[in-house]
From TrEMBL:
Entries under SUPFAM superfamilies matching the protein: NAD(P)-linked oxidoreductase
Claim: Oxidoreductase is one of the keywords in the record: yes
Domain NADP-dependent oxidoreductase: start-end pairs: 15-307
Source organism of the structure: Vreelandella lionensis
Keywords on record: Oxidoreductase
Protein name: Aldo/keto reductase
Pfam families with a match to the protein in the record: Aldo_ket_red (PF00248)
Amino acid sequence: MSEFYNRLKEVASPRIGLGCMNLSHGYGHYVPEEQGIRALNDAFEMGYRHFDTATLYGGTANESLLGKALASKRRELLLASKCGMAMDPVSGKRVIDGRPDTLRRQCEESLTRLKTDHLDLYYLHRMDRQVPIEESVGALGRLVEQGKLRAVGLSEISADTLRKAHAEYPVAAVQSEYSLWTRNPEIALSQACQELGTALVAFSPLGRGFLSGAIHAHTAYAEGDMRAGMPRFNGDNLTHNLTLLAHFNAMANDLEMTPAQLALAWVKAQGDHVIPIPGSRSVSHMQENLYAEQVVLSEVDLAQLNKMMLPGEIAGARYNEAQQADIDTEEFV
């Protein structure tokens, strides 16, 4: 197995990690710094050991937050961040740049913000279509050799791109959106990860709040909430998609767990190589999510869940056209 799995064992991490983006980025209503620091410390105390951030999140604010909250616990953590996509300080727009010099510079800046001399896992956040993937991954590989990283990861890429990258330098983990209602990794990526000994780190395993019951027919998205521009979260698409939740919610109730716990248990059941990293601003939700570590679904339950929310039943794409142009993952026809 990869360095990623070895480090998980080293820090006695549960399978479920913590996606930290929500504290500073993505969904609006970001928490004040002191509240964020308390939340991250509470997450550590309740058992989380795998913390995931990125240069992009909050225009570097999320990395700084983790550095302030977790630096004293560094030896007990698996700390992951991402490079290759950042906010331009002048335009305020996100910029994808996979050139080796950029990745090296961003790595140094991430280490400073996170108050550490190395990262356990560093992802290329998005593939730069102007730079061969081998060049970007090769640059990250050199950073491993220099001791600044322990492992290299990729995000939102296809199985073919993973194989090209892995031939250049071992890819320890691939981060991809994966949940009961977003099953794109099942097209080819999950199998490729298994073949290569690469972890599949599932972000948004709760469907960006859809599966946990956070989204309703009249949900008003806050300014800056990315879901406002995602087709499946709006209009007639959302109205249709909400009808698919009734059976799922009833099943969670019958099994005496929350919908969020059932959704996470399903992701965990997709293979030992799959690592879910739900995110939340709420400490109570972090605790609720971590409880799913103990849930083991029966074969009957899994078979029932597998028939729910199939790709052809979901109305609307998961990304809008602009967002889709930035990713390399396989899509269902």
